[in-house]
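Need C-alpha coordinates for this chain, all 227 residues.
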Amino acid sequence: MTFERYKRQILIDDIGETGQKKIASARVGVVGAGGLGSVVIPQLIAAGFGTVRIFEGDRLTLTNLNRQTIYKEDDIGKKKAEVLSERLSGMNSDVNIEIIPEFVESERHVKYFKDLDLIIDATDNIEARLLMDRFSQVLNLPLIHGAVRGTMGQVGVFIPPKTITSLYNKSEHREQETPVVAPICGVVGSIEVYEALRIVLTGTSPLNGKILLIDLKLLSFREVDIS
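Here are the C-alpha coordinates for all 227 residues:
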Protein backbone atom coordinates (compact mmCIF):
# COMPACT_ATOMS: atom_id res chain seq x y z
CA MET A 1 0.00 0.00 0.00
CA THR A 2 1.26 3.45 -0.94
CA PHE A 3 0.14 6.10 1.53
CA GLU A 4 0.51 8.78 -1.15
CA ARG A 5 -2.59 7.47 -2.90
CA TYR A 6 -4.69 8.08 0.22
CA LYS A 7 -2.95 11.28 1.30
CA ARG A 8 -6.09 13.45 1.28
CA GLN A 9 -8.04 11.15 3.61
CA ILE A 10 -4.99 10.44 5.76
CA LEU A 11 -4.89 14.20 6.43
CA ILE A 12 -8.19 13.84 8.30
CA ASP A 13 -7.43 13.66 12.02
CA ASP A 14 -9.79 10.72 12.56
CA ILE A 15 -7.94 8.63 9.97
CA GLY A 16 -4.19 9.25 9.68
CA GLU A 17 -1.79 6.49 8.65
CA THR A 18 -2.92 4.24 11.50
CA GLY A 19 -6.52 4.50 10.36
CA GLN A 20 -5.59 3.88 6.76
CA LYS A 21 -3.93 0.62 7.79
CA LYS A 22 -7.18 -0.41 9.49
CA ILE A 23 -9.10 0.39 6.32
CA ALA A 24 -6.62 -1.62 4.26
CA SER A 25 -7.18 -4.70 6.43
CA ALA A 26 -10.98 -4.46 6.45
CA ARG A 27 -13.17 -6.95 4.57
CA VAL A 28 -16.54 -5.58 3.46
CA GLY A 29 -19.48 -7.34 1.84
CA VAL A 30 -21.78 -5.31 -0.41
CA VAL A 31 -25.14 -6.89 -1.22
CA GLY A 32 -26.47 -5.34 -4.41
CA ALA A 33 -24.80 -3.46 -7.26
CA GLY A 34 -27.69 -1.30 -8.43
CA GLY A 35 -28.44 2.34 -7.61
CA LEU A 36 -26.86 2.27 -4.16
CA GLY A 37 -24.13 -0.19 -5.13
CA SER A 38 -23.07 2.07 -8.01
CA VAL A 39 -22.19 4.66 -5.37
CA VAL A 40 -20.98 2.42 -2.56
CA ILE A 41 -18.68 0.10 -4.52
CA PRO A 42 -16.43 2.67 -6.26
CA GLN A 43 -16.09 4.69 -3.04
CA LEU A 44 -15.07 1.64 -1.00
CA ILE A 45 -12.48 0.74 -3.62
CA ALA A 46 -11.18 4.30 -3.85
CA ALA A 47 -10.89 4.50 -0.05
CA GLY A 48 -8.67 1.41 -0.02
CA PHE A 49 -10.77 -1.17 1.83
CA GLY A 50 -8.72 -4.36 1.72
CA THR A 51 -11.43 -6.67 0.38
CA VAL A 52 -14.70 -5.67 -1.25
CA ARG A 53 -16.96 -8.67 -1.86
CA ILE A 54 -19.93 -7.88 -4.11
CA PHE A 55 -23.11 -9.94 -4.42
CA GLU A 56 -25.20 -9.33 -7.56
CA GLY A 57 -27.25 -11.83 -9.58
CA ASP A 58 -29.24 -9.49 -11.83
CA ARG A 59 -28.99 -8.39 -15.44
CA LEU A 60 -28.92 -4.74 -16.52
CA THR A 61 -32.04 -3.18 -18.04
CA LEU A 62 -32.59 0.16 -19.73
CA THR A 63 -34.61 1.47 -16.77
CA ASN A 64 -31.61 0.90 -14.47
CA LEU A 65 -29.49 3.51 -16.21
CA ASN A 66 -31.04 6.63 -14.68
CA ARG A 67 -29.32 5.85 -11.39
CA GLN A 68 -26.97 2.87 -11.80
CA THR A 69 -24.09 5.02 -12.98
CA ILE A 70 -21.44 2.31 -12.96
CA TYR A 71 -22.95 0.82 -16.14
CA LYS A 72 -23.25 1.91 -19.79
CA GLU A 73 -25.80 1.47 -22.58
CA ASP A 74 -23.70 -1.28 -24.13
CA ASP A 75 -24.15 -3.29 -20.92
CA ILE A 76 -27.94 -3.67 -21.28
CA GLY A 77 -28.90 -7.33 -21.13
CA LYS A 78 -25.58 -8.40 -19.63
CA LYS A 79 -25.15 -9.86 -16.18
CA LYS A 80 -24.11 -7.08 -13.85
CA ALA A 81 -21.51 -9.33 -12.23
CA GLU A 82 -19.76 -9.82 -15.58
CA VAL A 83 -19.78 -6.08 -16.28
CA LEU A 84 -18.40 -5.33 -12.82
CA SER A 85 -15.53 -7.76 -13.27
CA GLU A 86 -14.37 -5.72 -16.26
CA ARG A 87 -15.38 -2.25 -15.05
CA LEU A 88 -13.71 -2.45 -11.64
CA SER A 89 -10.51 -4.07 -12.86
CA GLY A 90 -7.57 -1.72 -12.50
CA MET A 91 -9.43 0.72 -10.26
CA ASN A 92 -7.21 0.06 -7.25
CA SER A 93 -4.54 -2.64 -7.09
CA ASP A 94 -4.51 -2.38 -3.28
CA VAL A 95 -8.03 -3.80 -3.11
CA ASN A 96 -9.07 -7.42 -3.48
CA ILE A 97 -12.36 -7.26 -5.42
CA GLU A 98 -14.48 -10.41 -5.26
CA ILE A 99 -17.70 -10.71 -7.23
CA ILE A 100 -20.29 -13.33 -6.34
CA PRO A 101 -22.77 -13.58 -9.29
CA GLU A 102 -25.70 -14.55 -7.09
CA PHE A 103 -28.56 -13.01 -5.15
CA VAL A 104 -28.32 -13.39 -1.37
CA GLU A 105 -31.48 -15.42 -0.93
CA SER A 106 -30.83 -18.45 1.25
CA GLU A 107 -29.04 -19.59 4.40
CA ARG A 108 -26.40 -21.31 2.26
CA HIS A 109 -24.94 -17.89 1.45
CA VAL A 110 -23.80 -17.46 5.05
CA LYS A 111 -20.49 -19.08 4.06
CA TYR A 112 -19.61 -15.95 2.07
CA PHE A 113 -20.00 -13.72 5.14
CA LYS A 114 -18.00 -15.63 7.75
CA ASP A 115 -14.68 -13.88 7.06
CA LEU A 116 -16.09 -10.36 6.65
CA ASP A 117 -15.83 -7.43 9.07
CA LEU A 118 -19.10 -5.75 8.10
CA ILE A 119 -22.03 -5.93 5.67
CA ILE A 120 -23.43 -3.10 3.56
CA ASP A 121 -27.03 -3.41 2.41
CA ALA A 122 -27.34 -1.92 -1.09
CA THR A 123 -30.33 -3.97 -2.20
CA ASP A 124 -34.02 -3.22 -2.68
CA ASN A 125 -35.19 -6.61 -1.47
CA ILE A 126 -36.81 -6.95 1.95
CA GLU A 127 -36.24 -10.70 2.15
CA ALA A 128 -32.52 -10.18 1.45
CA ARG A 129 -32.35 -7.52 4.17
CA LEU A 130 -33.87 -9.84 6.74
CA LEU A 131 -31.43 -12.56 5.70
CA MET A 132 -28.49 -10.14 6.01
CA ASP A 133 -29.75 -9.25 9.47
CA ARG A 134 -29.73 -12.94 10.46
CA PHE A 135 -26.17 -13.29 9.19
CA SER A 136 -25.27 -10.13 11.10
CA GLN A 137 -26.66 -11.54 14.34
CA VAL A 138 -25.21 -15.04 13.96
CA LEU A 139 -21.75 -13.86 12.90
CA ASN A 140 -21.68 -10.71 15.07
CA LEU A 141 -21.13 -8.45 12.06
CA PRO A 142 -22.16 -4.79 11.87
CA LEU A 143 -24.85 -4.22 9.23
CA ILE A 144 -25.14 -0.88 7.43
CA HIS A 145 -28.59 -0.52 5.91
CA GLY A 146 -29.61 1.74 3.05
CA ALA A 147 -32.86 2.18 1.13
CA VAL A 148 -34.30 4.69 -1.34
CA ARG A 149 -37.69 5.55 -2.80
CA GLY A 150 -38.53 8.58 -4.91
CA THR A 151 -36.62 11.52 -3.43
CA MET A 152 -36.41 9.95 0.01
CA GLY A 153 -33.94 7.57 1.58
CA GLN A 154 -32.72 6.10 4.83
CA VAL A 155 -29.52 4.84 6.40
CA GLY A 156 -29.24 2.72 9.50
CA VAL A 157 -26.47 1.01 11.45
CA PHE A 158 -27.08 -2.23 13.36
CA ILE A 159 -24.24 -3.60 15.43
CA PRO A 160 -25.39 -6.81 17.17
CA PRO A 161 -27.43 -7.20 19.24
CA LYS A 162 -29.11 -4.24 17.50
CA THR A 163 -31.32 -5.60 14.73
CA ILE A 164 -33.14 -4.32 11.65
CA THR A 165 -36.12 -6.66 12.02
CA SER A 166 -38.50 -4.08 13.51
CA LEU A 167 -38.23 -2.05 10.29
CA TYR A 168 -39.60 -4.71 7.99
CA ASN A 169 -42.49 -7.13 8.11
CA LYS A 170 -42.11 -10.43 6.25
CA SER A 171 -45.51 -9.87 4.66
CA GLU A 172 -44.19 -6.83 2.81
CA HIS A 173 -43.01 -7.29 -0.75
CA ARG A 174 -40.74 -5.39 -3.11
CA GLU A 175 -42.42 -3.12 -5.65
CA GLN A 176 -41.95 -4.13 -9.26
CA GLU A 177 -40.88 -0.62 -10.22
CA THR A 178 -39.84 1.65 -7.37
CA PRO A 179 -39.70 5.34 -8.27
CA VAL A 180 -36.23 6.78 -7.62
CA VAL A 181 -33.91 9.57 -8.75
CA ALA A 182 -30.13 9.27 -8.87
CA PRO A 183 -29.28 12.01 -6.32
CA ILE A 184 -30.91 10.17 -3.42
CA CYS A 185 -28.83 7.09 -4.29
CA GLY A 186 -25.73 9.29 -4.15
CA VAL A 187 -26.59 10.71 -0.73
CA VAL A 188 -27.59 7.40 0.88
CA GLY A 189 -24.73 5.43 -0.68
CA SER A 190 -22.14 7.99 0.40
CA ILE A 191 -23.39 7.98 3.98
CA GLU A 192 -23.25 4.18 4.00
CA VAL A 193 -19.58 4.32 2.98
CA TYR A 194 -18.82 6.91 5.66
CA GLU A 195 -20.47 4.69 8.26
CA ALA A 196 -18.31 1.80 7.05
CA LEU A 197 -15.23 3.97 7.57
CA ARG A 198 -16.46 5.01 11.01
CA ILE A 199 -17.07 1.42 12.12
CA VAL A 200 -13.71 0.19 10.84
CA LEU A 201 -11.90 3.07 12.53
CA THR A 202 -13.78 3.19 15.85
CA GLY A 203 -15.81 -0.02 16.12
CA THR A 204 -19.07 1.83 16.61
CA SER A 205 -21.38 4.56 15.30
CA PRO A 206 -23.74 7.15 16.83
CA LEU A 207 -26.29 5.84 14.33
CA ASN A 208 -26.28 2.35 15.87
CA GLY A 209 -29.86 1.18 16.37
CA LYS A 210 -31.19 4.25 14.56
CA ILE A 211 -32.43 5.23 11.13
CA LEU A 212 -31.45 8.50 9.47
CA LEU A 213 -34.39 9.63 7.32
CA ILE A 214 -33.46 11.81 4.35
CA ASP A 215 -35.88 13.90 2.27
CA LEU A 216 -34.20 15.64 -0.66
CA LYS A 217 -37.36 17.51 -1.62
CA LEU A 218 -37.40 19.22 1.79
CA LEU A 219 -33.62 18.98 2.27
CA SER A 220 -34.30 17.48 5.68
CA PHE A 221 -32.50 14.88 7.83
CA ARG A 222 -34.11 13.26 10.86
CA GLU A 223 -32.96 10.46 13.18
CA VAL A 224 -35.36 7.84 14.53
CA ASP A 225 -34.35 5.41 17.26
CA ILE A 226 -35.79 1.95 16.50
CA SER A 227 -33.81 -0.05 19.05
